[in-house]
Every structure is written in C-alpha cells, then in structure tokens.
C-alpha cells in the first residue's frame, strides 16, 4: 500500500480540521464557564444573604437557570457546528456562522442585564 492510498479527504485539509477542533474545545470551555458563573452567583446569593429580598431571590434563580440553559445550548450548538464545519471544510463550502454568534451574544446580553438588575437590587 503506497502513500496515496492511505490519504483521506480529511488529510488534505488537516490544518483546517485541527483549527476546527481547537475552536470546538474553546466553545466547550466557554459553556463550562457560563454554567459555572451561574452556579457561583446563585450559591453566593443564597449562602451570604444579609437581607432577604424576593426580587433578588428571583433574579439569582433566573441567572442560575439561564446560565445552565445557555451553557447547555452552547455545548449543543458547538457540537453541531463542529461536525458541520468538518463537512464544509472537506467540501470547500465553509460559511461564517453569523446566526450562531449573534444568537449566543444576545442571550448572554440578557443574562448580563439580569446581573445588572441583581446588582441594583442587592447591593444598593
């Protein structure tokens, strides 16, 4: 068996596939971080409450649940995107994932607004 018979279509674009894998792993780290921040805020709120506020309790729960949901959605979207990009690389039909980036940015913006509201109700 010679060298040409061992090559696959993936071998032709090895640099792009390795970059795709690094991007996927970065998205995995991002999803873990998003979930971790949600747990941190919720845990800090309920373990160090000096004043009981119903609004603050609700905001802390929303931040926790939203962070977990967004982290899971990020993980699923990253996995789907990884395989789609791998196929697109081999077919030389790669397109920038604008919708994914915009959607994740908007959802994270909503969570950050909840963080801001939480800060206003708890620390002021």
UniProtKB/TrEMBL annotation:
Claim: Transmembrane helix is one of the keywords in the record: yes
Major localisation: membrane
Keywords: Cell membrane, Membrane, Transmembrane, Transmembrane helix
Membrane protein topology class: Multi-pass membrane protein
Cellular compartments annotated: Cell membrane
Spans traversing the lipid bilayer: 24-46, 58-80, 101-121
Entry GO terms, CC: plasma membrane
Pfam families linked to this entry: DUF202
Domain DUF202: 16-85
Protein's UniProt name: DUF202 domain-containing protein
Species for this entry: Peribacillus glennii
């Amino acid at each position: 068996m010679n060298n040409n018979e061992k090559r696959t279509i993936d071998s032709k674009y090895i640099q792009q596939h390795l970059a795709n894998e690094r991007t996927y792993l970065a998205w995995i780290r991002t999803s873990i971080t998003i979930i971790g921040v949600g747990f941190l805020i919720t845990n800090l709120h309920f373990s160090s409450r000096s004043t009981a506020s119903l609004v603050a309790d609700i905001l802390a729960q929303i931040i926790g649940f939203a962070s977990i949901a967004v982290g899971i959605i990020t993980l699923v979207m990253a996995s789907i995107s990884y395989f789609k990009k791998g196929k697109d690389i081999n077919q030389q039909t790669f397109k920038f994932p604008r919708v994914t980036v915009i959607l994740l940015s908007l959802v994270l913006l909503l969570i950050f607004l909840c963080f801001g509201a939480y800060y206003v109700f708890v620390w002021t």
